[in-house]
Amino acid sequence: MTESMAASVAPSDLLRQRVGRLVALTSVHTAFDWFSDNTRQIGDWQLEVTEIPAPPFAETRRAEWVRQRFIELGLKEVHLDSVGNVVGIRPGRDAGAKFTAMCAHLDTVFPHGTAIKARREDGRLYGPGISDNSSGLVALLALASAMKEAKLQTESPLVFLANVGEEGEGDLRGMRAIFGNPRWRDSIAYTLVLDGGGTESLITEGIGSRRFLVTVRGPGGHSWSDFGAPNPILILARAIDLFSRTPISTPPPRSAFNIGVISGGTSVNSIPETASMKVDLRSAAAGEIDRLEQALRDALNRAVSEYHPPPGHKFATVSYDADLIGNRPAATLKTNAWIAEVIRAVDVQLGIVTRVQRASTDANVPLALGREAVAIGAGGTGGDAHTLHEWFDPANRELGLRRILLSALVLSGPSE
Ligand SMILES: [Zn+2]
């Protein structure tokens, strides 16, 4: 999912002093204390939200739960937008200033009907989606709570976003809607994407991906009487075999491909009419994705052209479609971006060793527009994401929350 990159330059002394002054403020201490005093509450929220199913394109129930919490925590103008993102504002002193956005995705990879039970055991939390991204969602709630408790006043406003459509075929539709909305497009200056556990990650490069549903079609038929008709499963298998030999560039930037789903056929004694697969192509370089797409098409063309009907056979038609079902832009944060410098200064202050990484996240959308955006962990540690055995260890989660809070405070320029 993520890939480490070389560390960057140290933050300036001025910025480090500014972070040092912030940490000395009583109000910031009060907010920090809220995190350490409320670990149980944060964990309870996490268990509760995990048990509200949120498959791609069906996040509404979970969104409604988050909306209620946003209202209770005193955020303003709380609402669901046209695609189902939950939006809540924390105004700053300067009503005309640009926003700092803090986002966490609502959706999970688990389809309708998945039995989802969350539990706490020996201090750890378990449940599908408990880390990715219940940990990000509850980080939003913890941040809003701590800021409320500490009566923190920022100069520019903050917008809290629980967005839809990050996973799989959601194709970042939640973030696309935010950055396609005239209200937000030019008014969000900085975006902090909170995705999964972790305290050290700083994702500054968005891995692009392109996804296809490939369907091979033939006339179908009876396994005995129509023998010799093109078999889409065999042709698809041949194409997969050819494509799987495509060489992959070695880092940097790395590329990858995956065939994640195959399906087709109706019965053991029927020649299938269709066979299909879902293919995921990824790279940090747009040109690499183009190359992989061409290799996929070459493999399909060759597999189809290799089919030769027996002499005089009536069935000779075979074809394929490759439908684009996902397209995430590859994009990189510009060097010396303020948002990355701020996080590195916060990390120095908190004794965190920053790990700069690349991954495909909601940050791809603002990054592709040339905006300053990063994805970072929501604190604690998580594992086995996208499986039913997913876990989250909240030990020292407050360090990750302090990191997010301080970064947001520097970005939104609180009065000192
Ligand atoms: Zn995620």
Q: Can you describe this structure?
A:
There is one protein chain. The protein is about 35% helix and about 25% strand. Helix 1 packs across helix 10. The radius of gyration is 24 Å and the shape is elongated. The longest helix is centred in the C-terminal third of the chain and has 20 residues. The chain is an alpha+beta fold. The protein contains twelve helices and 20 strands. It binds zinc ion. The site of zinc ion has 6 residues, from loops. The site of zinc ion (ZN) has 6 residues, from loops.
Question: Secondary-structure blueprint of this entry?
Answer:
Elements: E1 2-4, H1 13-24, H2 26-37, H3 39-50, H4 60-72, E2 76-80, E3 86-90, E4 99-105, E5 119-121, E6 124-126, H5 134-149, E7 158-163, H6 173-180, H7 182-185, E8 188-194, E9 201-206, E10 208-217, E11 221-222, H8 232-243, E12 255-264, E13 270-271, E14 274-283, H9 286-305, E15 319-328, E16 331-332, H10 338-350, E17 355-359, H11 364-368, E18 372-376, E19 381-383, E20 391-393, H12 397-411
Helix pairs in contact: 1-10, 2-5, 2-12, 3-5, 8-9, 10-12
This protein binds zinc ion.
Main attributes?
416 residues; alpha+beta; 4-stranded mixed β-sheet; 20 strands; 34% helix; elongated; binds zinc ion
Q: What bound compounds does this protein have? A: zinc ion
- Write down how many β-strands occur, each being a DSSP E stretch of 2 or more residues: 20
Q: In terms of quaternary structure, what is this?
A: single chain
Radius of gyration: 24 Å
What's the average pLDDT?
Answer: 92
Low-confidence stretches: none
Strand order of the largest sheet: 2-3-7-4-8-18
Number of helices: 12
Distance between the termini: 39 Å
Shape: elongated
Strand composition percent: 25-35%
Helix content: 25-40%
Which structural category do the helix and sheet elements fall into? alpha+beta
For the biggest sheet, the summary is: 6 strands, mixed
